[in-house]
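User: I'll paste a sequence; please echo it back and then give the predicted structure.

Assistant: Echoing your sequence first, then the prediction.
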Amino acid sequence: MFDMSLPWWEFLVRAAIIYCALLVFMRLSGKRAVGEFTAFDFVVLMLISESAQGALNGGDGSIPGSILLVATLVSLNYAVGAWSARSPRFDKLLEGEPVVLIRNGVIRHAALKRENVPISDLDAALRREGLKDCTLVELAMLETNGEITVIKRDEHLSSS
């Protein structure tokens, strides 16, 4: 139970490779995948987790191996967070940039399509802000965390 079937360093290497691969895949999957999970997204997340388990532990179910994996993953996550906080360039690479979905009341359909954001998600964000349609919006942004931020037009501008 306390003997590891793999050398200690292999746990570190495996964890680093899987962590980096998952970061790349999550980044490529788009902002919406992180911000608002659907039932489908949750199923995919569970399958990814199950698929990565074997690659992480290499068949070793020992307590020291598991502790080493967890410590490595937490350390990598801390290091990536620290590097991201200190390097705007790395943060932009890792998180991306916000995307304009509506500007001055005009929906940017190409941006919605490129970011895989259904119009229903945009409509829901408008309703959360108490808006009936996009003409009352100065700016709507798809944030890097997948949320849609809506900035209303000034009242005196939208009534004229």
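The mean pLDDT is 88. The helical segments are 8-29, 31-35, 39-57, 63-86, 88-95, 109-114, 119-128, 155-158.
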